[in-house]
Amino acid sequence: MSKxxxxxxxxxxGGSRGIxxxxxxxxxxxxxxxAITYNQSRAGAEETVAAxxxxxxxxxxxxADLVDxxxxxxxxxxxxxxxxxRKGSRALDILVNNAGNSGWGGLADATPxxxxxxxxxxxxAPFFIVQAALSRLAEGGRIINVSSGAGIRPLPVxxxxxxxxxxxxxxxxxxxxxxxxxxxxxxAVAPGxxxxxxxxxxxxxxxMVKAIEADTALGRFGEPSEIAAVVAFxxxxxxxxxxxxxxxxxxxxxx
Length: 255
Hints:
This protein is an alpha/beta fold. It has helices at about 20-30, 40-55, 70-85, 110-135, 160-180, 200-205, 205-215, 225-235, and strands spanning about 10, 35-40, 60-65, 90-95, 135-145, 185-190, 245-250.
């Protein structure tokens, strides 16, 4: 494989499992030095880093509970030190805002705390992570936000999650306009139903699986690697003319 991201640096939040892990592994395979964040899944983060290094890539993990925006300056101080030691510079080429938490719970089940926690991770954290990254982002850099098809077609079973993902889509457009003069592209990738541990319970229900597959043009759940492929394209030089877009990667769910 050609190293389309050779000598680049990347930060992938929530990179210890699922879609985030697949993105981190793909960016590293393309040659980037990848930092991942994790909250509670230290073992998962260590496994991800080990897998990347075994494949010949470079990665490291940093702990950060992104429910608390106050941890973000400290996260970037750690990131600066690691990149300076490994690359001789604190410059960041690729930022992937992927970290998330479970969005299940309808209107009747919602509480102010659940609302705050959901928006803290899915909307507030990306905003302040980008703010902290501004002085570090290289000219011609990339910001890629992991959104959801629910941000475009809200689901009543996850109204708070749907709202938060709509917010990240809006932020993507606003940032693209602000950062365009620096040739920094800003896009969002909106997955549909992807085979991850966050929806394992759904996939244990045969009737739900049948309904989801029937509503998907390609007739199946997606794989994390398929989302990672879209992110890798946007992060590469081939994606340099794409910005301010929410790219749905759902296999044609509910067309």
